[in-house]
Specification:
Elements: E1 2-6, E2 9-10, H1 16-30, E3 34-39, E4 41-42, E5 49-52, H2 60-77, E6 84-87, E7 96-98, H3 104-112, H4 116-120, H5 124-137, E8 143-146, H6 149-159, E9 168-170, E10 194-199, H7 208-217, E11 223-228, E12 245-249, H8 255-260, E13 263-266, H9 275-282, E14 287-290, E15 305-308, H10 314-325, H11 329-343, H12 348-364
Parallel strand pairs: 1-3, 1-6, 2-4, 3-5, 6-7, 7-8, 8-9, 10-11, 10-13, 11-12, 13-14, 14-15
Helix pairs in contact: 2-5, 7-10, 9-11
Length: 365
């Protein structure tokens, strides 16, 4: 079977969605599949062919429209019509759309609220993205691989149309247990000063500034904090936290940082899932996760981690962090073991097997 993967960028030097496509490409190639990546940039990966899309435009509206139409033309020009097209970007023709990125209408709502979201949706850039999304979700014979049941409900709630049930497939992401696993001889439970880990960019949605504000509220308590994915100089650290917050920048292999942390905080306003959540749990590290993140549905509150019911509420976040900081060693250890055990249900191999089963079902049709 031949599979075409579509995304703007692909590789381990980018964000979570780009790393995901690089990982899936490698796993499919290992299973003997002919895999082609179509996009603007791609890290060299063994066995992966890259068909580059050269963008002639700079503005976001033109780039979004150009990518939507240029990719199918490129695929046809390379005579790849017999391939299964698995896309993580908005394009005109495809077989399976992987919705790793936030859907635009829910994102506007969770970011701005009403009526601001409704007004902003009238601007040309947002109108363009919403138009392309509607084209994709109403495409004939298209399938949709959703990372969470939460996203399935949001499709119906925010877009006002329902997709045929046999076209929607909830396929939870998987985690690489070779890279993400609990430490040997784990002694974190007995450490006096606990470490808080944040993995993400410094966008408003991800909530790193809300995390810092919450930590400032409890600055009298002992803790350290590590920020991964944030560039030094891009963030203003509150004065009382300067000696306790470390900005690690981009880390290509963050497994050791997960294994040194006592909690990973995910205060996003909106996430279709959150691979960070799975990586943390697989490392035996409890999470504090936003109720608006799809991965919240795999975390039982009080067992594998804690839910953050109002991700914009810094006071609630501070309380949740305090629960972890003040947790006795036995309770923390129990939560750590429960998180690692739950993560075992979400292996990367299981995820890829489900994808291949979907591809084969479509191929037979």
């Amino acid at each position: 079977m031949r599979v075409v993967l579509v995304r703007r960028y692909c590789g381990f030097g980018y964000g979570g969605a780009e790393r995901y496509f690089a990982t899936v490409a490698g796993r499919l190639i290992r299973r003997g599949m002919d895999v082609v990546f179509v996009g603007e940039r791609c890290d060299p990966l063994p066995g992966l062919k890259h068909l580059r899309i050269r963008m002639p435009f700079r503005g976001s509206i033109a780039r979004n429209l150009a990518f939507f139409y240029m990719v199918p033309l490129k695929i046809r020009a390379e005579k790849l019509n017999d391939a299964i097209i698995y896309t993580g970007a908005r394009i005109k023709e495809f077989h399976v759309f992987c919705t790793n990125d936030p859907l635009h209408k829910p994102w506007l709502y969770f970011r701005y609220g009403n009526p601001e979201a409704a007004l902003l949706s009238l601007l040309p850039r947002h109108q363009t993205i919403l138009y392309l999304e509607k084209r994709m979700f109403t495409a004939k014979n298209a399938h949709f691989a959703l990372p969470s049941a939460l996203l399935k409900r949001q499709l119906e709630t925010f877009y006002g149309f329902s997709i045929m049930p046999d076209k929607v497939h909830v396929i939870h992401p998987g985690v690489d247990f070779y890279e993400f696993h609990p430490p040997e001889n784990d002694r974190r439970a007995d450490q006096a000063v606990r470490n808080i880990l944040f993995v993400g960019n410094n966008s408003y949605n991800k909530g790193v500034n809300r995390l810092l504000s919450a930590l400032d509220l409890i600055s009298s308590r002992p803790f350290t904090c590590t920020l991964v994915g944030i560039k030094p100089g891009d963030l203003k650290i509150p004065f009382r936290l300067r000696d306790r917050v470390k900005i690690a920048g981009y880390v290509r292999k963050p497994g050791d940082l997960y294994r040194r942390a006592h909690v990973v905080v995910i205060p996003s306003l909106y996430e279709t899932f959150s691979n960070v959540c799975l990586e943390s749990m697989a490392s035996g590290t409890p999470v504090i996760i936003s109720s608006q993140a799809g991965a919240c549905e795999i975390v039982e509150h009080g067992y594998e981690g804690l839910h953050l019911y109002e991700p914009s509420n810094e006071a609630e976040l501070a309380v949740r962090i305090l629960e972890i900081l003040e947790m006795d060693s036995k309770t923390w250890k129990t939560m750590s073991l429960a998180a690692a055990e739950k993560a075992k249900k979400f292996s990367l191999d299981a995820h890829v097997r489900k994808l291949i089963a979907l591809f084969e079902e479509i191929f037979v049709r």
